[in-house]
Design goal:
The structure is a homotetramer.
Chain A lengths: L10 E7 L2 E6 L5 E4 L2 E4 L11 E3 L5 E5 L3 H6 L10 H11 L6 E5 L5 H10 L4 E6 L2 H13 L6 E5 L11 E6 L8 H7 E11 L2 H13 L2 E15 L6 E2 L2 E3 L4 E7 L12
Parallel strand pairs in A: 7-8, 7-10, 8-9, 10-11
Antiparallel strand pairs in A: 1-2, 1-6, 3-4, 5-6, 11-15, 12-13, 12-15
Helix pairs in contact in A: 2-3
Chain lengths: 267, 267, 267, 267
């Protein structure tokens, strides 16, 4: 029997339905309150992930083991999170995988950091730069909760002033002025490796694309992703009425070794 | 110096610009022909990935190390490929990562298989079922080229008749009748683990969603992803004129252990 | 000087900015209250449409002459309105114009009725069927306000039981069971004329399309329209974060005279 | 019997299916060739619009009376046409209807001109400016074919140098430098009337929006419209694979009479 048992200290996603899910930490003696009644968290201990539990009002919740997307969506937020749809594409365009070494900036809520760490673990590393201590502390909490902190080095620093790491597999930017980081990313990346930048405005995309061209990156592409949910029910199936219309544009490119036009730059 | 050198037998992505890239296998004595002149592949050997090479007409190409998305887009195709935008979301919703054990069906071109193998390696495994031998052989070639065959077990079998594996982290379906596989997926998955189904038609989505509800899956959600490319140039920036309007819907859900309503089903 | 003056009884759109506009009826002695102060409506009388007026707090509002889209968006609502994006496409696909005779069902809020009346006036006519008296009375109010009631005949009736009019230029359906109306629409339309149906669910689209095929309609097409707003500001331009993800599908077709396959049906 | 008969000189839309339609002018003695056989156009004369006709190979075509969208889609093209989805929204945002007086520039293929003329007829007028004589002549042909030329005054002129008309209900711009026309549009429009600009690039939208703000326009909004077709068939319904990803952004605004900030400008 391979199903995992819920232990004290574990995080559990209590799922009533698709729209009502709650991330709780199982602590002995604690009670979790919902508008559908309360639940003694003691009762979860020893159950298997995937079992159902009843609230004081007899309402059934499923006790799921949180997945990466759950940790992202339930992040403690001090700023905007990177949504799974964008995190998924950023990861894929970056080319990273188990063992990769990645620089990310800024850390923000740590939502994207979690995704990066999840895919490079156990031997890879995410070096995540953040200027605001408040954000960094919050991200640390989120990463710890998702058991991903071991694969991340949280750094207090300004990547517009430089990146300390070298021979990186990818540099991932989600900050206001990505174009200022492009020359530093060039130095920090392996040849042929990938830079990915996520920005809400067109102007950021244009400036970043120009910086990429000037700094010897090629295969430069910008896309945006619109994700729409469906309401599925026989005879009544239709797209949901509301959707997120925009989060940001994703620009990605690859480092080339041809001599740079503007300023010489070695690896 | 960490940059990797191109050796005989390596695959190289020759990049002229975003729309014109060519995947070549470096074989001594061979010549690669483009409408921009030819290239002696011998000349690539010993160069670093990321360097530029010139064709016989003096046109510069960058010799990139292929990334996961390049291997996917340049797959040898016997059938429709799963596009990176969909592969990225399927991977993220599946919750898999390094070490995961996944069943996929059908193998098809192996495009999605590559993505799954890339993220579960080196200790995880993808068990990929395919009925058509012709597809399987082609997929094997694609996986070998991308150095991902070691992490995949290609199986000739019909998942609508059953899944042999147990305690899986995810089951990924991209076949005509996913709803017929749902009961087998239930048995094959760990509790709380994820099923993801990719289907082009609404009818498939409805039938699969119903099968998921009947078979004790919860947290059932269907989305579609529209990706639009941007033409980025100062003063002329705009979305591209053409885009892919539809590939398929992604339905995902989680296995719960509550007693099934219709037919009892154990793990 | 051609600018029109505001008179007592006129409707005026008070515009603070794009997101804050208010439709008011100019009545002597009345006061209009906003969170930006109040306004004596007497003060509007004799001004020209397009002039600015100040609230009691000194905030400037522009007094615009309401356009069709303003009347639609500011409809008194008893049910969902047809949004301008959909009304615009329905009108265009219907082929109607000045002088056309159109049947519509149901009247609903009268939002689409307004659009139809606006484009067929002054010599055309919209015959608008509605079962619920409450909706009809509300729609009448909306049409009167927009000065379009003269071009509409509001009918209390059930189009699934039949359409009284003949030789119509278009039949426009926005009701739960459009497929039941298709045979009646066939009889009511001129040859080569257009039927347009607006439905939120896929199932309605499928059933309506089948009914159209069985009832000798051709050139059958279904589309959906996604409209996304832009936040335009130099250096900060980007799509809006939220958008309407779905309103409905628009199916349109043309009546042909070829003998029907299923059941004979003449004009 | 109200059905209209096909006469010599009429245009007919021969419809095989949704994707294969042909606009033909009925001329005695002429033959129309398709890959499904030929058709003697004499045979169409005296038939009713909506009847079916057979090609020499026995394939049935429906002889439809062309609607506005047919004339637009079958325009003789010297340049990009304005698609019905955009024409529909431009017309609706413009607020025009029967009797309106509108300036448009540039005429281009005349596709948008047709839509404008269709909705302002019979008493309204479209003043359509075009610099290139070749485009103008082609547009004239398209308008004549659609029986809409009487409601249009084709003008050879440069609206960036000024608009001759006054007291217009709307100014519609589809040209490379709309922002240069904004001050002239201000003078040409009635107070409270509407300007609509259609542009493919973000940069044009930004410059036009700035010009609108500087020239006393309010209620300024920019949207884009994505239209996606559906393949409708019981059990196989799905969105079409390909779609148009971008045509242009639609910016619209209303003229206000408040004193201008930058440069004084009267009506």
């Amino acid at each position: 029997m391979a199903n995992e048992k819920i232990g004290e200290g574990d995080y559990v996603l209590l799922c009533l339905d698709v729209r009502r899910t709650y991330m709780v930490k199982v602590e002995a003696g604690k009670t979790f309150h919902t508008h559908k009644g309360f639940m003694k968290l003691d009762d979860l201990i020893g159950k298997e992930f995937g079992e159902t539990v009843q609230s004081s009002l007899g309402i059934e919740f499923t006790a799921l083991k949180p997945s990466l997307t759950d940790y992202i969506m339930k992040s403690s937020r001090k700023t905007q999170i990177t949504y799974p749809k964008d995190a998924a594409l950023i990861v894929m365009f970056s080319g990273i995988g188990p063992g990769s070494r990645v620089v990310e900036s800024g850390t923000g809520t740590g939502a994207l950091t979690m995704a990066l760490a999840h895919y490079v673990k156990p031997k890879g590393k995410v070096y995540s730069y953040e200027l605001r201590e408040e954000f960094q502390k919050n991200a640390e909490k989120n990463l710890k909760r998702a058991n991903l902190l071991d694969f991340v080095e949280l750094k207090s620093g300004d990547v517009t002033a430089g990146i300390e790491e070298r021979d990186l597999d990818a540099v991932i930017l989600d900050l206001a002025v990505p174009w200022l980081v492009v020359p530093h990313a060039y130095k920090a990346l392996k040849a042929s490796a990938t830079i990915v930048s996520f920005s809400p405005t067109i102007d950021q995309v244009v400036k970043t694309t120009e910086a990429l061209k000037e700094n010897n990156f090629v295969f430069i592409e910008t896309v945006e992703c619109l994700m729409r949910g469906m309401q599925v029910e026989r005879g009544k199936t239709r797209p949901h009425t509301m959707m997120t219309g925009h989060t940001g544009y994703i620009t990605h490119a690859r480092k080339t070794l041809k001599p740079q036009q503007e300023t010489p730059s070695g690896t």
